[in-house]
Amino acid sequence: MHGPASPSWLLVALCAATGAYCLLRMRSAVEEQRRTAGAEALMGFGMAVMAVPAAVAAPPHWAWLGYTAVFGAAALRALWAARTGRHHLHHLVGTCAMVYMAAVMAAAPSARHHAHGGAGVPLVTGALLLYFTAYVLLSGFRLLPVAAVAGTTETAGSTAAASRGSAGTPGWGDRPELSQACRLSMGIAMLAMLVTL
What angle, rounded to 10 degrees, do the helices at 61-81 and 88-106 form? Predict the structure, then answer.
């Protein structure tokens, strides 16, 4: 991407760490969790590679075409999976955004500026920015701690959880708040990449 080097390296680190965590989530006992984690690991590592500053390693033209093909295949897979659940639609938008960014980067720099009219934000970029802004805000809101409505409700919940013991406790890779934080960090990274596009 075409941003300053220091923020780009932070973006690479964030995306790589998220991809690594998603790989660990693939060890889940739940098949749907493994499938989702695999798709998110691909997104995380793909975004990390795309975020490497161009001054350090400028990929050749064919590499961007390769990214377009890989994420195009991932988009088709997400489209197929979306038949069974609406939560796959976000993966579809994410993979389509990766296809779009790779296709833009594959274009010659002069062609890219002429294609967008040289001024303003292109329509597709603007739509993706709006989507990921809304997604990040909603995901961040979902991660906020829920205030206890009544102290007795919270105490009863704690007692019930304690009585279940460790058998009812999910593994750290299956915890929904960690998965949500993972998706939030990728949404923030996607926003940063779209802004520098």
Answer: 160
